[in-house]
Amino acid sequence: MDITSVAAVEQAVASFDPQIVLNAAAYNQVDVAENEPAAAFQVNALAVRNLALACRQCGAQLVHFSTDYVFDGMAGRPYTEADATHPLGAYAVSKLGGELYAQAYLANPLIVRTSGVFGPGALQTARGNFIELMLRLAGDTKTIRVTEDHVASPTYAPLLAARTADLVEKGVTGVVHCGGGTPISWYEYAKLIFQEAGLTPALKPTTEREYRTPARRPKFSALSNSRLESLGLEPMPPLPVAVRSYLQMRKRLLAA
Ligand SMILES: NC(=O)c1ccc[n+]([C@@H]2O[C@H](COP(=O)([O-])OP(=O)(O)OC[C@H]3O[C@@H](n4cnc5c(N)ncnc54)[C@H](OP(=O)(O)O)[C@@H]3O)[C@@H](O)[C@H]2O)c1
Question: Using a 6 Å cutoff on CB, does residue 31 contact ligand 1?
Fold first, then answer.
């Protein structure tokens, strides 16, 4: 369904009568959103309001995915759930709006913030993910330039899904951070991908100053998983382990 449609959401939630609604839908064209902030707000904020109201109506729990981009990246260390938010652009503002709507209309939503997600679903979408982009560029002869002054915590989607399921089973509510186990710059991440894939393309670091984008992005948006771990959930593995798992799964899926 189109979650921006109040009627479609009401009808779907009423007919399924779910115990849990997981919302991973998003308008996530971060740069395009600078020119069309209303479109981003419609999907990332107002549609979450639709879901929250429908969940309230039938007593379902809302599990909503949010982003490290709610932070400005100035802390210089992994962000905890207690840190103040300060979004830097239209996408980020709309995602924070979604969090606020979920919290405004529901007593106990679960909001899972994550960062730099990569998963096998990207093999079926035009958008892909960072690993697919790097593998594609490696097939070209041009030097690949990747920013070294932005740090995130890339997160393997199947593990994000598993931890989310664990959080739901434990009845955890509120905001929980679930990022990958390694804060890393995009340049170092690209190096790691090529190393794990056994590729040696020409790769050079670049900076935000050299590679301007319409939307400002947080410079250091890695997430601290301290709350997740204090709740007794299994820690997220280091990034090399997650990238290896992804590449193995990718090989199996492409062979099939
Ligand atoms: N990817 C990341 O690095 C990252 C990082 C931090 C947080 N997140 C969050 O994680 C969640 C999932 O992101 P993702 O990267 O997995 O996104 P994705 O692969 O692009 O999936 C988003 C989905 O939302 C759907 N969608 C868009 N507008 C919709 C609407 N009006 N009604 C119903 N569905 C709609 C899209 O459907 P169509 O394909 O049909 O348009 C798409 O299937 C989002 O909340 C995002 O903010 C992602």
Answer: no
